[in-house]
Amino acid sequence: MKQRAKRALAALFAVATLTTTFVLWRAPEDGATEAEFVSVPEWTFRGQVLNSERKPLRGFGVVATRLGDDGAVLERIEQPLDDHRDGRFDVRCKSAGHWRIEPFAPGRQLVMARDFWQSDSEIWTYQLLRQESLDRIAEVLKGTEPATIEGEVVVPSGALPPSILVEALACVELWTGPGDRVAASAICDEAGRFTLRADAGALKLRASAAGWNDSEFVGRPMQGGESSTATLALRPPTPVSLRIEPLDPANPRPLRVEWTAEGKPSAGADGVEGAWLDTSIVGEGWILWTLACGADAPQRGSFHLTIGERRRIELHRFPARPTVLAVTGFDAETPLVALGCEATMGLTPAANSSFVNGRHEFTLARPGKWLITHANSEFASGYFNVVEVPSVARHTIELQPPPRGCFDY
Fold it and tell me: Do 306 and 369 reside in the same domain of the chain?
């Protein structure tokens, strides 16, 4: 019950999630005596700690932890207990990555930590509560029965896939950052049946399984103790056919295509120049593809995919018609890449930017529709721009950097 009280309060707070990359330290090469240090901007995280009455708390400390992809602790910075004016604090770090900020104080519990992937100058609030405050909240929540949802997951045809996961997402209006939180989850039995129990509120249900597209969301506003049923339908992978024009029609070469959909890499597929390669893709939106063929340099591009709409993409080899695209609005520390995203443009090599006179410049193979995204994380940040480049020698555009809250897919 106390944990439920903490979760109820956690819904009142936001999580900031942004992405950036810095190189901070390079280990010495074999035989070297000193490590090489690279100067990078200092990361700063600011906050204000409040008590149960939402008034500033003065006596507290702060722990900042840098986490790896697997959740392992890579670095820990602790500010010991001290007297903080107006309950405010600053934490400064010199390592890039995923940082978790957690104030602490004797006899108090933190309602919710905050996670950051980029230096953040905004003052975020935290709340440290005494146990009696949590007990009072738990007392208020006593007697609230969870809602129950029973249902099944179906597929258009064939056998059900194993290990189907069903999740109920709580739609909390004040929740920002990654979005709706998972209120309950369950693995279906062999017949696709499931039972979920979650706190009352507005819930969205979805089903997911390896090799399938997620089901569409099904909404359920639930009262405490209420029961309901739901049927969720997994969506099959979307068929995609791809043909690459051979460099020498008399001697077609083997090729391999790999793609990334919604930030997740695929297993790839093998084919031959000039022949249609039939495959299927799980995911939707902008799909990044990479082509390896013979001794050619790898080619990269993108195309847009909608679940359920079959795509046939034929890529020709056209003579280059170079054009320069200048992009303003980003600083020098944000490397960008341009990817062709129209089949009519044919095979278009990706172009990395160079920072010249306060702007990013690309030398593009030809005019057309290009997708501009971060070079170091291609789609992982969930941020990109699609621009139309006219048939001119040089074209300049201004783009807006990613807004606060642009988070991983």
Answer: no
